[in-house]
């Protein structure tokens, strides 16, 4: 009995001895702490630091054993707090070690602590022009203006990544967007007219550079920040004349909306949609990151996500934009970009690459929604092969019945974890003979590679939340995270 008690006490000590991660620093230079009103920028492994930065030191965050509070967001926040303490205003991540669940359950990082140079108005281009002169220019060239040209109010909506809190900042800037050097060009400049930001309180400063894309009324944009960094986004003008763009930043998401105030918006200059298509997608993070096939959203002007888990005509609709494409493996990662969106509940499933021939699998999707209806559909089958056409090792062959519209949907195992993404079917025309139920899913290994390229998104680890539950119970939970994707061209 005494031996049993000792074992129990030892187990209790293990259970309650969780501790925090450890940080090792090498600080070479130190300043007064950075004010909390100033954001500590995060540069990923592949991001370049702006010129003129000063290195203050480096740090390593590691697991001390049975650590808690060590998700990627949490360890990055620890690094940011250290940078703030020593007077830095940015960190540059140089190494990320993911949890392996044998050595550590924590994310571990190496990072540089840097101090970006102070913004100087002389560092950015300035155009000597008044608001009255700009209005006169727009009036004289009215017939030749592109929809993006004119005077705009800039509004921003910030959403904290770690909570449901949002903040709307009205009319931070008033800008004029004109052709570069006022000449006929596919490039444009955004010029400050007035601003509530003291760093941009001078009329004529160039706040952003825009370039036309292959799609009408869509522009790539490079905004110049007050710390010398640049933020990239894509802005599209919708049928109401609003230009919207989205930024994914270290601690928050920012949606920027441009509201045109001069000249009057002409809806005839906005091109009508060229066509429509649909597919399926699924959420992999609380803050609205969605996975689908590249061919579902290829060449899209507008992407709409519809979540209809209730099986009724009521649904939730959100706009989305592309974060990353892998054309060769037919995978796209999207991000919900809609003011009406609030975070999902905790994602109840993970991603795994474990599968065997004969395993039962199923998918939830929206096939042929214009004919079969807008409610989700369940299809079940087995894994027939661990390779695709011509023994392509990227794919699984499955007997799950799929139709047009299932593309991009999740392929679940019977534990409710995703093992693939429904991609294609083998049809009669391709092989010149009748075939039935030969379908393919891209393996999740290739999705995991893409997620590693996005510094603020981590691969959801396999979950046991649905293990052992009936299929109907699993579907009741998972349907909330699968969506219909409607695309217009």
Report on this model:
The structure is a single chain. It is built from eight helices and 25 strands. It has helices spanning 2-16, 72-85, 131-140, 294-297, 369-372, 428-431, 444-452, 471-478; strands at residues 22-27, 41-43, 54-62, 90-97, 108-115, 150-160, 166-179, 187-195, 206-212, 218-224, 230-237, 243-248, 252-262, 276-283, 289-292, 302-307, 316-326, 331-336, 360-365, 377-385, 395-398, 410-413, 418-425, 439-443, 482-488. It is flat and about 70 Å long. Strand 11 (230-237) and strand 12 form a beta hairpin. Residues 1-18 and 160-171 have low confidence and may be disordered. Helix content is 14%, strand content 38%. It has 489 residues and is mainly beta. The strands form four sheets. An eight-stranded antiparallel barrel has the order 6-7-8-9-10-11-12-13. A six-stranded antiparallel β-barrel has the order 14-15-18-17-16-25. Strands 19-20-21-24-23-22 form a six-stranded antiparallel β-barrel. The protein starts with a helix and ends with a strand.
Number of H/I helices: 8
Alpha-carbon distance between the termini? Answer: 74 Å
Shape category: flat
By secondary-structure content and strand pairing, the structural class works out as mainly beta
Q: How do the strands and helices of this protein lay out in sequence?
A:
Blueprint: H1 2-16, E1 22-27, E2 41-43, E3 54-62, H2 72-85, E4 90-97, E5 108-115, H3 131-140, E6 150-160, E7 166-179, E8 187-195, E9 206-212, E10 218-224, E11 230-237, E12 243-248, E13 252-262, E14 276-283, E15 289-292, H4 294-297, E16 302-307, E17 316-326, E18 331-336, E19 360-365, H5 369-372, E20 377-385, E21 395-398, E22 410-413, E23 418-425, H6 428-431, E24 439-443, H7 444-452, H8 471-478, E25 482-488
Parallel strand pairs: 2-4
Antiparallel strand pairs: 1-3, 3-5, 4-5, 6-7, 6-13, 7-8, 8-9, 9-10, 10-11, 11-12, 12-13, 14-15, 14-25, 15-18, 16-17, 16-25, 17-18, 19-20, 19-22, 20-21, 21-24, 22-23, 23-24
